[in-house]
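B., you asked whether I could sanity-check this one before it goes into the benchmark set. Here's the sequence:
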Amino acid sequence: MASTLTHRPRRTEASAGSGGGRDRDRDGERWRDEADDEDGRRDGDEELEAGDCKELRLTLMEEVLLLGIKDREGYTSFWNDCISAGLRGCILVELSLRGRIQLEPATMRRKCLLNRKVLFKSDAPTGDVLLDEALKHIKATEPAETVQSWIELLTGETWNPLKLNYQIRNVRERLAKSLVEKGVLTTEKQNFLLFDMTTHPVTNDTLKQRLIKKLQAAFLDKWTKEPQRMDKRLLALVLLAHSSDVLENAFVPLLDEQYELATARSRELLELNPDHESSKPNSSEMIWAVMAAFTK
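And here's what the prediction gave me:
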């Protein structure tokens, strides 16, 4: 409202005659109307920004699961045996990006990412049940474990019976319920002859398409051969989506020429040496350590 008043020309003393009062009333009404319009636009912008922020609150785990879920059927492919471990890798990267864990510093004996331990950094609540559950395990574990070990422990793929309690169970279902609460998915029951299964079809197709276009742009319009110049969350999403075998889903809608270009560039990125890339400035060691664990 201040800017509207500032740019409005001053009234001259001559105009403040018998009709000046009516003019001032009319001007006052116009000012109030314009102020209301301005407030309305501001409120609308704030609501839009709030909506955008709400969409951006998806965790890496939720984004990867959303990429893997079939829109109408509401479940991931029965043939995808990578997404379970991939989601555990997402948990480690998400905790690292939030400053809760880190890799131990490199030494002469432990330069390789796969040999370095995951160190607890902060137990401040993340606001996410899965992240806090994993963080609790990492904090309580002595001696510390490597990235690869943590992926196996959180997945339940360990031969140590004393550490079976580290497994985080029902990750996909819990993530799906979180996405339902955020209005991205819905819940249905489907009959598969011998059993009923709870499914979660996509209801917010706009958000999923935005996620897909963000991944497509990373390999087309915004492609860079230097991963350290990419946004860390986007780089993590790309690598983790590949590790979870859902990155291809983002490329399917592309035209043939774009598809070939995107897949070629993705192979170029995925064939990089994680140890070499993590040593570059502005690189995230945890992202590349998780990648190394999946490509060893």
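One thing to flag: Residues 20-56 form the longest helix (37 residues). Otherwise nothing jumped out at me.
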